[in-house]
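DM from R.C. (forwarded with permission)

"hey, sorry to bug you on a friday — could you get me a structure for this? deadline for the figure draft is monday and I only need the backbone to look sensible"
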Amino acid sequence: MAVAEQLLDQVKTYNPDFDGEIIESAAAFAKTMHEGQTRASGEPYYTHPLEVAGILADMKMDQATILTAILHDTLEDTPATYKELSTKFGKEVADLVNGVSKLTKIESQTVEGKQAENFRKLVLAMSEDIRVLLVKLADRLHNMRTLGAFKNPDKQRRIARETLDIYAPLAERIGMHKVKEELEDLAFSFLNPEARESINARQNFLRKEGNDVVKKVIGHLEKLMKDSKIDAEVTGREKTRYSIWKKMQRKNVAFEQLSDIMAFRIVVDSVEECYHVLGVIHSNFPVVPGRFKDFISTPKPNGYRSIHTTVLGPENHRIEIQIRTADMHYEADLGVAAHWSYKQGASGADLKDMKKFRWLRELLEIMEQESKPEDFLENTKLELFADQVYVFSPKGDLVELPNGATPVDFAYAVHSGVGDKCVGSKINGRIAPLNTKLQNGDQVEIITSKTQTPSPTWERFVVTGKARSHIRRFIRQQQRNEYITLGQAMLKKIFQQEGYDYTDKAVAGIVAQMRVDDVDDIFANIGSGHFIAKDVFRTIFPAHKTEAAVAAKENDPDKVTYAKRPDDGKPMPIKGLIPGMAVHFARCCHPLPGDRIVGIVTTGKGVTIHTIDCETLETFADTPERWIDVSWGEGPDSPEAHVGRLEVTITNESGALAALTTVIGKNGGNITNLKIVNRTMDFWDMLLDVYVHDTRHLSNIIAALRATPQISSVERARGR
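My reply, with the result:
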């Protein structure tokens, strides 16, 4: 076992006290367990875990991690048991191997679902011990290095995409930049080999042409350091092919237009010297505005520390310079692995200290909120890829959020309870809307109320997965409660019409038959339109052949029910509805008080209100059981605002749009949306959404617009 001997020699270089016998024992155990298994390349399978262990040995990882790497596939792919591993190699190693293993085969119909579910288990395992992730990343790195052995290009691309979507961002998040860059480059070679080769060829050309420039810059910087009596190591480093490609895509520029494909690094002995070097650099070269970042005073969440600045260097070449200490440089390459190598003497408790990794706890919280693995992956992708913005709490705590985050995202980042009760915000001491995009350095204060609940409208502008998952969960629960109330009332009405006394026991008897979990599920399905109330009744009483001759009249048919509007929770006075009904206004006809209306039980929405002449009603002609006879009731003292839609044509002349908005405003309307649908030299056609009280109010606005010279025509929109 030459590979095992090589691994042992590698481990001994940084820790002569390593237990060589247990390493050899683990290698022999893995070989025995994987006997007969081969990789796509034809090599014996046991060579793979030894190579993974070698990658971790390069990081100088502790003994338990090396053993875990050697054994990481034994629980999943061989007859080995947890008890066997625990007896032979100790509970710590057995737990780590168990964490890396997939535990069970994932049953999912889609590749995306499998990927999301695997990621879910990976994050769960990480919550126990971050070393699980280190082994998983090393495992993925070796798999990517040998991905060419697969003959199926689709499989290669799928694995490469998964690497780029999940594993490279995770490596970056824990500061392992070397691993991240290699994973990206390897994935790039399978996903876009032509682009990678093109950049590679261009780099080779520039390397020959610009060799002198790099040497000149390094020489100039070394002379500056020497003249300033600073003991420093100066190096030049090319940016990776994938990072160059990303910048070309992001900035929409050609390779030739990129001016900073080289980065120069100055490594010194102390933090004080870092700032001394910065002063020397800025004193001798013009600084490029907006390209200075100090990650020493404010480290990244993954612990990365360095100073970045871009200047116009020798011969006016734009160069990026990174200034850091030797320790910072070591941590920048290895991230968390640098903290937990054997040299640190870290204890088991230290290894499980997850306080630095707030992002991981947030992923776990998202996972608890999301019911579908696909939703979880969507939200975690948001977390992993978004650029960051740093804001402060009123107490001065630094909070990291994705770029484009709002006060609602901030509130949920502080605590889910704060997010749920959020009613307003102050940014830098001033009241600001909840959809305001936060900027770096903003100080954010959240105003809360005990009576507040999450608003469905928040989902339109929040960007963090945590905020979105909490809002969606609340909406689902709120809608479900409304559907349960509506469904129960509809079923009770059928019981009454057919001359039966309603009992919950009768409904409970068909729970298994309807393939649901409980009685509330039946009510919710009726309320949402997935079940028809009459069909449920017939299931309860299959022998019932004839309906009651006369439906029992309601005690008060003219009673006005204030049903809740789901978008804002405000009451709507409508006759014929059951209290608690979830109600939506149809967007096809925009019904207003004064219109003749009808209610349609719509799958997944509750009741949708249409005008009686809406063309959409034709689609429900064959399902009369969905129709509900409703009408407008008397409203509260302050009339409720409803949306009326207008089709307007105005002349293309100065002041026409101003005249349109002025007339609507003077007549008590409020424009909520405006869309120009057609433009010509002489006329503009547009759709207007206007808040009005009823049809009479809308008619008054239409009459006033028709009397305005700049308005060519105006009609109430019926079918858009």
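R.C.: lifesaver. The chain has four domains: 2-193, 210-334, 475-632, 642-716.
me: no worries. Residues 103-109, 340-355, 546-557 have pLDDT under 50 and may be disordered.
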